[in-house]
Amino acid sequence: MTDARSNILDVRGLRIAIPGRDGERVAVSNVDFEVARGEVLGLVGESGSGKSLSMLAVMGLLPRNMQVTGSVRFDGQELLGLPARQMRSIRGGRIAMVFQDPMTALNPVMTVGAQIAEAIRLHNPSLSRRALRARAVGLLELVSIPMPEQRFDQYPHEFSGGMRQRVVIAIAVANDPELLIADEPTTALDVTIQAQIVEIFDRLRREKGLAIVLITHDLGLVAGLADRITILYSGRVAERGAIEAVFRRPRHPYTAGLLAAVPSIDSTSERLHAIDGTPPSLAARPSGCQFHPRCAFALPVCAERDPDFQWFGQSMAACHRAAEALPMAGGDDGR
Amino acid sequence: MSAHTILAIGPGRRLYSRFANRLSWRSAPVILGAVIILGAIIIAISIPWWSPYDPIALAGRRLQPPSWGHWCGTDALGRDVLVRTLYGTRYSLTIAALVLAAGVSIGSLVGAVAGFIGGLLDSTLMRLADITLSFPPILLAMAIAASLGPGLVHTAIALIIVWWPIYARLMRAQVLNVKGLDHVDAAVVAGALPSRILFKHIVPLCWSPILVNMTMDVGQVILLASGLSFIGLGAQPPTPEWGQMIAEGASSFYSWWIAMGPGLAIFLVSLSFNFLGDGLRDLFDPRSRAST
């Protein structure tokens, strides 16, 4: 049996490779992260860092030609290599997903109510029409959509972006999942709507004990919602740990750079802080530490050897110099 | 922007106003086409109740030129040409409906499955469609009709075989487009079965170009069916089918009115369906819409 604080999702040594004519390209390698019940994990990284790819691997949605190895345990059950039938009953039942763009995530030719009802019926085939409708209306209410009875019979084009994202969330939580994967759920929304969506996530977590993996590059969102953070860089984990510890005392220069790049309203400097250089392409990954070509503190050893994780009580970082007190930007004064 | 655009709030009004907005001289052909088609359908259904003559029985003297008694004259067997032409509407519309219904059903099913599943199945089905499409339509239809023997049903079968690949291609292209949309992934994530995803979340979004193409193709089917009847592979005498009637008219060439009735009918109905198809395309496809 699993106790309340056990991990609902445990990813160990995840590796995703894309075979090509000139050998395979490793998009994600040696990625570990875990989410406990009722906990929010922020999965942060630049575009192409492998954060979405990792979550697609968890859902078993990667194209068949990609080779996924490692271990993805959901509530103790290994998901990699699970037969399609069993995967289908987990998807939308115990694990749900919210997509980035609410404008395209709904079927334009079905009413919103029918789509929610479909999500429920897929996992409760015996429910009557009336029961389905009642539950769907209840879900619309749960995500704070006014006049849910009337809204049930409307089409997605009659909803605004923020309202659609709420419908998408309603569909995702239709079957009381234990884990919700939200892939940049607020990126396509404007800031006031973002706050409402965050509020809904927070409430679902508190009221239903929902564990959430929040894929994003918005550190503010992570700071507001997440308990733990995993920072990916170039398909590897740079740093991970409790949100407090990582934000207060980043151990990896990349984390520090990200935190420094967040504009601050009371900062006196006129220029925005940026990390020099660009992330390595999939075809030309550097040797040793993935970050060393852009790192201000790189040593010769960084180009030679991939750093191991060093553990600092609340967080761990993959950096040769993680234990040193480097004069990095970000951290304490950042937020 | 006109007042119609501002009023277009409800879902029902939207389609209406999209149409009403462009209700200018440019829509005249569409309306004309729609009226003629509607008229043809009404005639096809109601003709037995009000027809003054029997289409296959003697109605008067042979080879009479047009007169008040016989507006389009009589043919070599003394039958009224106008009545026969109007009866011909039944055959032409029925065969067009049959061919398109079957062609679209078979074609879009094949195309949807090929596009959705992909891989070897996709290649096999689409090469089959390519092979069919590589023959000139009239030649292939003739060959099939000739091998099956004359008769309207055989004509229909021949035309279905000629027509399905067009819709298979069209549907496949649409499915490939829609397959990549987020809501399809969302359905996968919700745990839906592949068949449900295809028929509930992909195919319903694919119909508009197929609908437009169907409307355009009605005229083509009628033409080709008449063509087959004209060369004796389709309807057999004394069926008042247009192509068959023109063939009869060709044998008494100086009685020009015999071929004129069915000829005009083919022309009008084909043109009307083309007009309607053009209008539907404008309505569905924002790119081909003239800026207003």
TrEMBL record, chain A:
One of its GO terms (cellular component) is plasma membrane. Pfam families: ABC_tran, oligo_HPY. It comes from the Bacteria. It is found in: Cell inner membrane. Keywords: ATP-binding, Cell membrane, Membrane, Nucleotide-binding, Transport. Residues 11-259 form the ABC transporter domain. GO terms for molecular function: ATP binding; ATP hydrolysis activity. It is a peripheral membrane protein. One of its GO terms (biological process) is transmembrane transport. The keyword Membrane applies. InterPro entries: AAA+_ATPase (IPR003593), ABC_Ni/Peptide_Import (IPR050388), ABC_transporter-like_ATP-bd (IPR003439), ABC_transporter-like_CS (IPR017871), Oligopep_ABC_C (IPR013563), P-loop_NTPase (IPR027417). The keyword Cell membrane applies. PANTHER family: DIPEPTIDE TRANSPORT ATP-BINDING PROTEIN DPPD, OLIGOPEPTIDE TRANSPORT ATP-BINDING PROTEIN APPD. Belongs to the ABC transporter superfamily. This is ABC transporter ATP-binding protein. It comes from Acidisoma silvae.
From TrEMBL, chain B:
It is found in: Cell membrane. The chain crosses the membrane at residues 28-50, 91-117, 138-166, 218-236, 256-277. Pfam families: BPD_transp_1. It comes from the Bacteria. SUPFAM superfamilies: MetI-like (SSF161098). GO terms for cellular component: plasma membrane. Residues 89-277 form the ABC transmembrane type-1 domain. This is ABC transporter permease. Belongs to the binding-protein-dependent transport system permease family. Gene3D superfamilies: MetI-like. Keywords: Cell membrane, Membrane, Peptide transport, Protein transport, Transmembrane, Transmembrane helix, Transport. InterPro entries: BP-dependent_transpt_permease, MetI-like, MetI-like_sf. Its main location: membrane. One of its GO terms (biological process) is peptide transport. It is a multi-pass membrane protein. It comes from Acidisoma silvae.
